[in-house]
Design brief:
CATH superfamily: Ribonucleoside hydrolase-like
CATH class: Alpha Beta
Number of helices: 12
CATH architecture: Alpha-Beta Complex
Largest sheet: 9 strands, mixed
Distance between the termini: 24 Å
Structural class: alpha/beta
Number of domains: 1
Length: 312
């Protein structure tokens, strides 16, 4: 039976690989892709989402533009990592598929109302602004959400945009805290796990060997994306963050974590956006999120490469 998902995203090279993985996986029914401002401004994230759909041969899918700024802060972007387009690396053509006229938040609300309760999973690959707006406008829909699976945060690994904050959470910490407090089932794939999934030269060669448009584009995306983290961490390859959200839905047995309390710092300037995971249960705050720390990285790449190898 297929699992219905909405992908909320701010593409981003790693977002692109996550979207390709979802489209290549018949277990998943992508109901729509909702764009949010994050890695680059909204005008580019919605454009990039459409480019990726067409790369995957899925011009029939629907892309919706959502929030162009965080709930309470000015937008922070990451062109220093992703390049000025957000998808620097390959030369992807301008998309011919249209942007949907409906606002992303309206689409998510309408979809949660229309689909069977407990059947739709929200896959968040960027800042959580769109999803927080859904929770603000229609809190009665929380019981209808099957799960919110998000890439964001980092506790044991520290941050990647400040010493304590991961980028997606830092961009809109108030939205992230709303999601944590919502009562919806939440699964978090933080830097603690994504930093174990590295795009080594050997793994890039496997993408290269596909000899397909999607394989070649994946190599170009990853070679551009990894340069920043290779320089920062001195590693062979960079962490591949967002595809872990999709891989977790496909193969949860590859991952290990525990249910614990997760709270987002929203007021302290020094630690704004910090993901505070009470791994050892010392606060006795209610357990509100499944926090993942472990992954079988070889099996992850086997899955990613096998699936993207199915695309045009």
């Amino acid at each position: 039976m297929t699992r219905k998902i909405i992908i909320d995203t701010d593409p981003g090279q790693d977002d692109a690989l996550a979207i390709l993985l979802a489209f290549a996986s018949p277990e998943l029914d992508v109901l729509g892709i909702t764009a949010v401002a994050g890695n680059v401004p909204l005008a580019l994230t919605e454009l990039n989402a459409r480019k990726i759909c067409e790369l995957a041969g899925r011009a029939d899918s629907k892309v919706f533009a959502g929030a162009d700024r965080p709930l309470m802060r000015l937008l922070v972007t990451a062109e220093h990592v992703h390049g000025k387009t957000g998808l620097d690396g390959p030369d992807l053509p301008e998309p011919s598929m249209p942007l949907q006229k409906q606002h992303a938040v309206d689409f998510i609300i309408e979809t949660l109302r229309r689909e069977e309760a407990g059947s739709v999973t929200l896959c968040a690959l960027g800042p959580l602004t769109n999803i927080a707006q859904v929770l603000i406008r229609a809190p009665e829909l929380v019981p209808r959400i099957r799960e919110i699976v998000l890439m964001g945060g980092g506790f044991f690994e520290g941050g990647n945009i400040t010493p304590t904050a991961e980028f997606n959470i830092y961009v809109d910490p108030h939205a992230a805290q709303l999601v944590m407090q919502s009562g919806a089932p939440v699964t978090i794939l933080p830097l603690d796990v994504t930093h174990k999934v590295l795009t080594t030269a050997r793994r890039l060669d496997r993408f290269r060997a596909m000899g397909t448009k999607s394989g070649d584009a994946s190599v170009a995306l990853l070679e551009f994306f990894e340069r920043f983290d290779e320089e920062k961490y001195g590693s062979d390859g960079g962490p591949l963050h967002d595809p872990n959200v999709i891989a977790y839905l496909l193969r949860p047995e590859l991952y290990g974590g525990r249910l614990c309390n997760v709270t987002i710092e929203t007021s302290n300037e020094l630690t704004l956006g910090m993901t505070v995971a009470d791994w050892w249960g010392v606060t006795h705050r209610p357990k509100n999120a499944f926090y993942i720390r472990d992954v079988d990285d070889e099996a992850f790449f086997d899955l990613l490469i096998e699936r993207i190898g199915r695309l045009p």
